[in-house]
Amino acid sequence: MAPAASKLRAEAGLEPLPRRALSQYLRLLRLYPVLTKAATSGILSALGNFLAQLIEKKQKKENCSQKLDVSGPLRYAVYGFFFTGPLGHFFYLLMERWIPSDVPLAGIKRLLLDRLLFAPAFLSLFFLVMNFLEGQDTAAFTAKMKSGFWPALRMNWRVWTPVQFININYIPVQFRVLFANLVALFWYAYLASLGK
């Protein structure tokens, strides 16, 4: 009886919500890969900043129901949508072309490309774009780079090196941005905490 009921639910389009959501996400990913990755990046980046604000309020023992700064998640959403999603999409595709999987030590070479070239450039871009979105001047950007870049890059290497090893070597290319976004949810919470 249970298999028949399950079949009827599926035919009527009454599948469980997670399955429907995943199916819809995969459909959008196939039809609009860059836009889907951009939207996912924007949403998860904003959520990461929102979590950073909640964590900061808890650490200061403030009331979490007090008003949160809406501009922070908006900035992170803009960065995720216009930079993280699209750049990640194209970087992973180019990496596949530049270093095909049949090249000796491809996984290590890809990881080195990501860690030594992409990570510092992407982090610099993050500081530059956030500085612009916050309405800061060049002096503020220079100061932020001097005080925050190397600590953030060292933390990036510690956190992201094992993550990217898994991502680059074991996650199918169409899901790499999503995988990185899920880890970035917490990474952006860390980066947002540097801005305070």
From TrEMBL:
Organism: Ovis ammon polii
Source taxon at top rank: Eukaryota
Organism classification: Eukaryota, Metazoa, Chordata, Craniata, Vertebrata
Keyword Transmembrane helix: yes
Regions crossing the membrane: 34-55, 76-95, 115-133, 173-190
Keyword entries, A-Z: Membrane, Transmembrane, Transmembrane helix
The keyword Membrane appears for this protein: yes
Signal peptide: none
InterPro entries attached to this UniProt entry: Mpv17_PMP22
GO cellular component, one term: peroxisomal membrane
Topology term for the membrane: Multi-pass membrane protein
Compartments it resides in: Membrane
Official protein name in the record: Peroxisomal membrane protein 2
Family: Belongs to the peroxisomal membrane protein PXMP2/4 family.
